[in-house]
Amino acid sequence: MTYSTKSIVKLLLLAFSILLVFSCKKASLPGVTTGSVTRILQTSAYSGGQVISDGGVQVYARGVCWNTSEDPTISDNKSSDSTGFGLFTSHITGLTANTLYYVRAYATNSEGTSYGANVTFTTLPPAVPSLATSGLKSVTLTTAQGTGEITNDGGLAITDRGICWNTTGTPTIADNHTAAGSGGEIFFATLTELTIGTTYYVRSYATNSLGTGYGNEVIFIQMEPVTDADGNAYSVITIGTQVWMGENLKTTKFNDGTAIPTVATGMNWANTTTPAFCWYNDNEPEYKATYGALYNWFAVNTGKLCPAGWHVPTSDEFTTLIAFNGGEKSAGGLLKEAGTAHWAAPNVGATNGSGFTALPGGGRYNIGSQGGAFSDLGKYGYHWSSSSSIETEFAISFEMGYDFNQVSKDEYSKRDGGTVRCIKNGQ
User: Fold this and answer.
1) Does 324 lie in the same domain as 180?
2) How far is 322 from 313, CA to CA, in rounded Å?
3) Which pLDDT does position 22 carry in this prediction?
4) pTM of the model
């Protein structure tokens, strides 16, 4: 097909006209809607919104603004929550208890700032503090360290906090207790004068001007700590008929004293088919004490990873643990450390009622273009079993997460890195 000179001129003029229309189109203010207000406490809440139109130019600021009078603007209190189109979530802080607030989403481009509709909410009235109690660690023959987290101060200043314990259940500050100062969210306190073989009931506590609130109760039997080949000591807990370590393994040696090879380079990790370990992000000082080490399954399969008299649990032994704690659909809540000191919010269902204190140590993977990459610290914990899969490339791991309450039995590549909890022989 050929075109005359006249036709080509007409086509060029049409294209130029279309281009002129678009280039002369005037930018406008963004379009934004305000989301509902959720998770309302005495001094904080969550809201957000959605940028539905950028007005033809980039939205470079968005969030919510709030005040005690109608139609708040960005000259009042505000959050800043990324840029561009789409949904966003905002954390509203610094509020006063039992007070009515107005909140609006906002979005800003080069033409100015626009606002969503007003949404109102009232903060909760003052209350005693709410807390979470974690498991016990740093256990010696007569002491142990307890951890508490203040999840809500009740809208008032914390004047006292700590850990209380007894041997009968539901301990209060009228029983044995150790104070840990005032203020703050996460705190530690030492239980003293403990006796081997005795069952203890432990709760965190915090006090404000309205009274004292208590965390969930953790039950543990004081037992002699177990030591690995490196000399690291671990707390010991009894759950049903099983005896478990209360912490993730962190040894760099097998129980015969030989060193476990460490692999730092990503692709080297991905290609390793012999025993190996690493620290998350290759950062021992940051992650060893809390989360332990990450081991590939070849290290697990040696049978020498745990201290003498202990072993990596089989899939069936993990299943027994899960069944004792209510089954796979709900056991995660009883097994996970409570609160958000280490788990990302919302840490669904976590009470640590078992005392197992599962932590989100993340993992290291062997697949993809970034084989050997680290992922999921703070969100998911992957606990190796000693059981291989029918598929020879895989082994059984048990997963817990911040966003669900169940325990998932999954198959992972034997070259992946996961955490290890040891169980006592004969359980």
Assistant:
1) no
2) 12
3) 45
4) 0.68
